[in-house]
Amino acid sequence: MSDLLTISSGALTAQINPLGAELWSLADRQGREYMTDADPAFWAGHAPLLFPVVGSLTEDKLRLDGEEYPLARHGFARRSRFAVTEQGESFVRFRLTDSAETRAVYPFVFALDMAFCLDGSTLAMEAKVFNPGDAPLPFSFGYHPAFAWPLPGGAEKSAHKLVFAEPEPQDVRRVGKADGLLQPEGEPTPVQGRELALSESLFTADALIWTDLASRALSYGADGGAWLDIAFPDTPMLGLWQVPGARYICIEPWAGHADPAGFAGDFRDKPGVMELGAGQRRCFRIDVTVREDASCIY
């Protein structure tokens, strides 16, 4: 815990761990916590960054140009120590670059920058993936923040819901519990129009996954309690997950997803993988705005 870096806007205070450039805490001026309690009985994560893959690969192997590389679920960024490149009272920036260790499982040069900036009641987070090499850089990226469920403000856990910016009538997807691979069959969405009433029963079959989300923003909260407005303009997919019984809900904007069940092709051909040309970069932003004891904006 002593390694955590603290930034503040007055209205909010955030703490970030350089190990994984992971957001550990987001609290208001009253000290009320909006992130997970990270109870290890359920899941000890906070908000890992998913790079260079989102989800699981078939047999945990990255297949590339006829070679195989061992790469665990969600990649290595979440277990890598980022360097602090700049820090002020209300912001901090980190960078992770390739090393002999990363190239052994992902044979590319890269730079992953991660910035956190507090402005009033909003925490803006932005990841930038840069290709400093000569060859195209294939990758996926995702956020995995675990927010408190229930949120501060006194509303019951059962009263919490998501309200999407747009209607979401399409089927949702699941991953296999044994292998973590994206299942081919969809299932009817639990979203009613734009609203999803949250209950632990939604997650007995693991995460809910939208592979083609219409919305790029949503609100999470409960009438009579606090709300979080979450905007993710650069990520077209979403995962929603928790371990039933835990006091968090993971709202995960993704650009990429797990290998489809049965996929054993080249990583570049995997659905959800994008490529950066030499000298190119791509940004992924997520903004979280805290509204204490308010109502949904959508």
Topology, pairings included?
Blueprint: E1 5-8, E2 12-17, E3 22-28, E4 49-50, E5 61-64, E6 67-70, E7 83-87, E8 91-97, H1 100-103, E9 111-119, E10 122-130, E11 137-139, E12 141-143, E13 146-148, E14 161-164, E15 195-197, E16 208-210, E17 217-221, E18 227-231, E19 237-241, E20 248-255, E21 274-276, E22 281-291
Antiparallel strand pairs: 1-2, 2-3, 4-12, 5-6, 7-8, 8-9, 9-10, 10-22, 11-21, 12-20, 13-20, 14-15, 14-17, 16-19, 17-18, 18-22, 19-20
In DSSP terms (H or I, runs of 4 or more residues), the helix count works out at: 1
- Strand percentage: 35-45%
N-to-C series of helices and strands: EEEEEEEEHEEEEEEEEEEEEEE
Structural class: mainly beta
Low-confidence stretches: none
**Average pLDDT figure:** 96
Strand order of the largest sheet: 7-8-9-10-22-18-17-14-15
Question: What is this structure, in a nutshell?
Answer:
By secondary structure, the chain is an all-beta fold.
What does this protein structure show overall?
A hairpin with a 2-residue loop joins strand 5 and strand 6. It is globular, with a radius of gyration of 19 Å. The longest helix is centred in the middle third of the chain and has 4 residues. The chain contains one helix and 22 strands. With 298 residues, the chain is mainly β. The protein is 1% helix and 38% strand.
